[in-house]
Amino acid sequence: MKNELHQSGSLYLKQHANNPVHWQLWSADVLAQAVRDQRLLVLSIGYSSCHWCHVMEEESFEDEEVAALMNAHYTSIKIDREERPDLDARYMNAVQLMTGQGGWPLNCIALPDGTPVWGGTYFSKADWM
């Protein structure tokens, strides 16, 4: 796998196109491959003017150690909440039920079929490791 965000029309997603994380675009094909590979999903949802989204990108998603961990163990999907408000609402509701908190960046670990199992908002490098 490689980072596929350069294919997106979203400014937010393109901002992550050079991350060492092998970000994928949300699609039925990506989910089907995760099911075949039996890999959990990392879903990271944000938007282009989100300050903490940019901080987390710099601290975590541009970090080679974090990227190596994510690339080895997960199918990582980056989502622009402005393009996919349906996915934002689904995973925001799940994280709020799990933690009592919400906001962006929104990060969720999900089963290969997209069922959320754990999540939160801003995670530092130490949180990912």
Give an overview of the whole structure.
By secondary structure, this protein is an alpha+beta fold. It is 42% helix and 19% strand. The chain is globular, with a radius of gyration of 13 Å. The mean pLDDT is 97. The two termini are 21 Å apart. It has a single domain (5-128), classed as 3-Layer(aba) Sandwich (Glutaredoxin).
Task: Give a nutshell description of this structure.
The chain is of the alpha+beta class and 129 residues long. It contains six helices and four strands; from the N terminus they run ααβααβαββα.
- Report the major sheet: 4 strands, mixed
Q: Give the assembly state of these chains.
A: single chain
* Terminal CA distance: 21 Å
Tell me the overall shape.
globular
Instruction: Give me the CATH architecture, please.
Output: 3-Layer(aba) Sandwich
* Domains (count): 1
Any idea of the CATH topology?
Answer: Glutaredoxin
Mean pLDDT: 97
How much of the polypeptide forms β-strand, as a percent range?
15-25%
Low-confidence stretches: none
Can you write the helix and strand succession as a string?
A: HHEHHEHEEH
Strand order of the largest sheet: 2-1-3-4
Per DSSP E runs of 2 or more residues, the count of β-strands stands at: 4
Given this structure, which CATH class is correct?
Alpha Beta
Please state the CA-atom Rg, rounded to the nearest Å: 13 Å
Number of helical runs?
Answer: 6
Structural class: alpha+beta
